[in-house]
Amino acid sequence: MKVIVVGGVAAGMSFAARARRLNEDAQIIVLERGEYVSFANCGLPYFVGGEITDPDRLLVQTPQKLRDALNLDVRVRHEVTAVDTQAQTVTIQTPSGPTTETYDVLFLAPGAEAMRLPIPGIDSDRVLTLRTVDDARQMRAQVEAGIKRAIVLGAGFIGLEAAEALAQTGVDVTVVELADHVLPPLEVEVAHPVQDELGRLGIKTHLGVAASAIRPGVDSDTVVLADGTELQADLICLSAGVVPATAPFAAAGIETVRGAIVVDERGRTSAPNVYAAGDAVTSTDQITGEVRPVALAGPANRAGRLIADFVMRGEAARPLPRPLGTAIVRVGRLTAAMTGANRAALERNHIAHTTLHLHPNQHAGYFPGASQISLVVHIGEDGRLLGAQAVGEEGVDKRIDVLATAIRAQLHVEDLIDLDLSYSPPYGQAKDAVNLIGMVGANVLDGTLRLWYPAQYEEVAQSSLILDTRSRAEYETGYLPGSLNIPHTELRDRLDEVRGAASGRPVRVLCASGVRSAIAHRLLTQSGFDSASLSGGITSLRQYLGKRADTVIKV
Ligand SMILES: Cc1cc2nc3c(=O)[nH]c(=O)nc-3n(C[C@H](O)[C@H](O)[C@H](O)COP(=O)(O)OP(=O)(O)OC[C@H]3O[C@@H](n4cnc5c(N)ncnc54)[C@H](O)[C@@H]3O)c2cc1C
């Protein structure tokens, strides 16, 4: 069997290595158009920022090591420019000219390329992308040459990693993002704390505005924004999304959707004996059923391995799972992460859901270093877990990974109550944050707890009495105008006061994080009030409002 692999990094190399482990006799040729194979693209920002000092550490494998260990024929600077799916041949541009190879099995893992914004000046020499080891070296060289100002176009995961890296070197960094908040796949209440953290790192942001032109200059370029703002840049990092690198394969008649190769649950493309995986292919989302590319390293590596199983072992192999899009990013002191569907995807697909906001400590409150994790969790009407996001200083990765596992296992929110998670004071709480999600969710599902939401604050202020159950000292640090402050410990004795102030209107309760207001809600409900508790309390309201919090919440 002669196997040709196109693309020698995540999916491609996982496929090739697994194929060899399963079949010692196959001829396996890996064709990579770049200089390196099996490099750590996820590590590139940390080399730019100086946390990884030796660029060789980004090179996980070399062609020689792969030949020695796995008898793989790895050819760098070999770009596949055409495929004949009838004759089963590929045309390759090599340093010594074009050539062809036949194949019995063709595995396509060409990944994606940075999206070129269609704006004047985008081809300026000062515009760099961060996709390859050479890109990272070039960016690092600019930093070492003493550049002063960098503009990052796009505030996605890679854009913010690049922004933080550049800021760490002392460069003055500005991020421009078309969406109205950074990290657009995250909920606004998770993204706003990250925005604040960027400010603390000295990184400026221009949000809700597009870059409309780049004017190349002698000493620096000018980036012109759609609102007329002009920003000077010595370096422009283009990270406004990616497009699948599939032109030669689409030209060969292999089916694509918006540039991404269409594959089935075995990684089969529309052409016989041609398989594909990674950033270049479509996948079907586990929660929404949406068909879209998922540009993440984990799914790419695992898909390469599973498809090799299918090619070498046939139907006995497991089919490809549907991805959840679990992703994580560090920004300064904070970590933000997500798994499963976000609110926009649920709404787009008309999936009825309830949202929970929690702010538990990452470990026992009495143990030094306790800090809050802000969690946003979406559950279906039947309690099925649909998606979760978190932001905080510590423990975010652990909770999102447990929730990703729970979603993959199709657990319901009540099941989280029973998860037997490791605990001692430096690591967690006897009721871990994940157990608490289960308890709050179960309360919501059975009607013990009724929630209102940060997004409803204006209509609630018009229609209801807002009852703030925090202490007087907390209330004075910031309150909603027109709200009544009765600390939850006094509420039992002051129900008449609430009745009078509400004068027939519903009572909408809040506290700092939703714990005390839930207690108050139970008391009010059992005393005949129409009551609901603010999901996540004033902490979530502040996170939802972001900069607007200063005008809405009075002191
Ligand atoms: C800076 C950066 C940071 C990232 N951080 C993370 C992270 O923290 N977590 C995460 O999950 N994901 C991260 N990713 C995404 C992750 O790296 C990708 O999802 C993953 O590498 C995709 O694997 P792939 O095999 O599809 O493509 P790639 O790993 O990109 O490999 C594709 C290879 O194919 C080659 N190629 C393309 N066309 C041809 C052709 N015609 N002929 C021959 N060779 C070709 C390319 O040169 C490339 O080397 C990051 C990506 C970048 C760029």
Question: How is this structure best described in words?
Answer:
There is one protein chain. With 555 residues, the chain is an alpha/beta fold. The strands form nine sheets. It has a five-stranded parallel β-sheet with strand order 3-2-1-7-20. A five-stranded parallel β-sheet has the order 9-16-10-11-12, with helices on one face. Strand 18 and strand 19 form a beta hairpin. Helix 1 (10-22) runs parallel beside helix 8 (297-313). The longest helix has 17 residues, at 297-313. The radius of gyration is 27 Å and the shape is globular. The chain starts with a strand and ends with a helix. The protein binds flavin-adenine dinucleotide. Residues 6-7, 9-12, 31-34, 41-42, 44-45, 79-80, 109-111, 130-131, 158, 245, 248, 278-280, 295-298, 300 line the site of flavin-adenine dinucleotide. Flavin-adenine dinucleotide is lined by residues 6-7, 9-12, 31-34, 41-42, 44-45, 79-80, 109-111, 130-131, 158, 245, 248, 278-280, 295-298, 300.
TL;DR?
The chain is an alpha/beta fold and 555 residues long. It contains 17 helices and 32 strands.
Radius of gyration equals 27 Å
Side by side, the strands of the main sheet go 3-2-1-7-20
> What portion of the residues fall into strands of 2 or more residues?
25-35%
Give a list of the ligands. flavin-adenine dinucleotide
Overall 3D form: globular
Major sheet: size, sense and barrel closure? Answer: 5 strands, parallel
How far apart are the termini? 74 Å
**Tally of separate helices:** 17
Percent in helix: 25-40%
**Based on DSSP secondary structure assignment, what is the total number of beta strands?**
32
| pLDDT averaged residue by residue | 97
Which consecutive residue ranges, at least 5 long each, have pLDDT under 50? none
- Seen as an oligomer or otherwise, the chain set is single chain
Q: By helix and strand content, what is the structural category?
A: alpha/beta
